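Structure tokens please, single chain.
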Amino acid sequence: MLDLIIHGGTVVTPSGVGQFDIGIQGEKIVLVGARDSITDESQRYIDATGKYVFPGGIEPHTHIASRVSEAWAGRRGVMTQSPEAASRAAAHGGVTTYIDFAGGMEGTEDGDQSDNSIMTRLDARRSVFAGHSYTDFAFHFTLAGEVPTHTIEEIREAIESGVSSFKIFTTFGSKVPYGHLWAIFEVVGKNGGIMAVHAEDDDMVKYMEAKLIREGRDQGYNLHLAHNNISEDISFRKIIRLSEHTETG
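Here you go.
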């Protein structure tokens, strides 16, 4: 017996759009068949006649239950939306999984990268979301600054546990030097993980920020002048070369 059958709708699949019925067992789609072809009994039926049926969307980049910097918020203690509020909004929009961040812009949420292991920080971050989210969630892990060797060695365990994507910055206070980045890429690539890179040339960003301040043009609407296309282009060329060299996605 199936747990749920959705019938009568116009279903969007990876291979196209058609008139299909869907059978669900537990939390998985186990059957997609032509209209009225699913003859199994089910505990629930949903009549989707006149409606489109989409797979749940995946939002790959969120900042939920995170502190907002005082520089951005204008005051201390400002937090982004709670898991309850954010996941409720996501579900209303058809998003059934979102991927947030663990590790913090500067290592841990308290800005200290050396004290806790990657797995300890992942567990701490999960505890914020567990039992408080209406949808599924996962995490990228952020590595920042001069990442200690023992932390780089922990990447394999994190990937084996299901956290396979790692976020780094090449600018800001959380900038990862290229030597450390090379070591991170090698471990991530060797163990089947992927990198998520915020790539800008740090020297160019700092130069332009100082220039705009001198000229009295450091307003938010001039942000694109400091964080510009040529800075990104130069940095991404380095990142792509490093990715090719280490065979890392």
